């Protein structure tokens, strides 16, 4: 009886286990990163992208269609729309980032207090969170702006209140999960003080999910800030702001479509890019 040993195939079809093809980043992720880099550059150094004055206009060139001279056309007073979109990025993004920062700060304090204290504190905080969830965020923002008055700071604070409830509930659940972990119980038995235990063990491990949530809240904040700017509660004209620019061109949709189209596309692209990047915080490279 002859025993035949089959040899592994040789050639390009066989690939060693240690030489697997590297996974390339998705095209959508690369586009999102590229767009957000442009947005950051427009916020920090808008003169590099558009050196003109966003407030200066030439009445003789009003409502010019997009051309080689004016890439996105001009508005009703002859101002270059591309320059205004670039310089308006800073106003919209700074307000949205401030709103998210305030929401994360307030929501983290509430969630941390509810998770650590428990008892009546937890009940009261969660009832406040339930009330915030019951009111639509845009209506709550409008009510607060009515009391505080229009302006960038008022818009940032009003938008931040809408994100407090979700952040507080997420952090509370994470704190409850972390505080029952064996390593936290071991640290408590070892004689660690509550403040040291919270700052060194509980808070760093409970804050991890907030990074992805903050990216999602940034996308919501951009939409909310633009919506409030559209209603006239944001940056004072003639300063450029995406929502206000969309509102300025709504009466000229048939004759000057570019007045609303390009600022609207900037809002949509930034929101989509932010949502795509938020997958990184959840470990998703899809």
UniProtKB/TrEMBL annotation:
Keywords: Cell membrane, Membrane, Transmembrane, Transmembrane helix, Transport. Its main location: membrane. The chain crosses the membrane at residues 27-49, 96-121, 128-147, 153-171, 210-235, 255-273. It is a multi-pass membrane protein. Signal peptide: none annotated. InterPro entries: BP-dependent_transpt_permease (IPR050366), MetI-like (IPR000515), MetI-like_sf (IPR035906). Residues 89-278 form the ABC transmembrane type-1 domain. Residues 1-20 are annotated as: Disordered. Residues 7-16 have a biased composition (Low complexity). It is found in: Cell membrane. Belongs to the binding-protein-dependent transport system permease family. This is ABC transporter permease. It comes from Pseudonocardia tropica.
């Amino acid at each position: 009886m002859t025993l035949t040993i089959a040899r592994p195939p040789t050639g390009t079809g066989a690939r060693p286990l240690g030489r697997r093809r590297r996974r390339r980043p998705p095209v959508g992720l690369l586009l999102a990163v590229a767009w957000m880099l442009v947005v950051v550059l427009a916020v920090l150094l808008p003169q590099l992208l558009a050196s003109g004055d966003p407030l200066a206009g030439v009445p003789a060139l009003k409502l010019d269609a997009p051309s080689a001279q004016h890439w996105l056309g001009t508005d009703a007073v002859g101002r270059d729309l591309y320059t205004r979109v670039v310089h308006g990025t800073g106003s919209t993004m700074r307000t949205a980032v401030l709103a998210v920062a305030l929401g994360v700060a307030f929501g983290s304090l509430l969630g941390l207090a509810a998770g650590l204290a428990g008892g009546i504190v937890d009940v009261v905080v969660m009832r406040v969170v339930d009330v915030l969830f019951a009111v639509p965020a845009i209506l709550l923002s409008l009510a607060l702006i009515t009391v505080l008055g229009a302006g960038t700071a008022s818009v940032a604070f009003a938008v931040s209140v809408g994100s407090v409830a979700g952040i507080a509930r997420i952090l509370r659940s994470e704190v409850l999960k972390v505080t029952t972990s064996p390593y936290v119980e071991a640290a408590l038995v070892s004689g660690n003080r509550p403040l040291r235990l919270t700052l060194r063990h509980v808070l760093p491990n409970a804050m991890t999910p907030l990074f992805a949530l903050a990216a999602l809240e940034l996308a919501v904040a951009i939409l909310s800030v633009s919506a409030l700017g559209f209603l006239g509660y944001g940056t004072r004209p003639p300063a450029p702001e995406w929502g206000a620019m969309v509102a300025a061109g709504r009466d000229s949709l048939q004759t000057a479509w570019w007045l609303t189209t390009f600022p609207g596309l900037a809002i949509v692209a930034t929101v989509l890019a932010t949502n795509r990047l938020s997958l990184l915080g959840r470990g998703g490279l899809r």
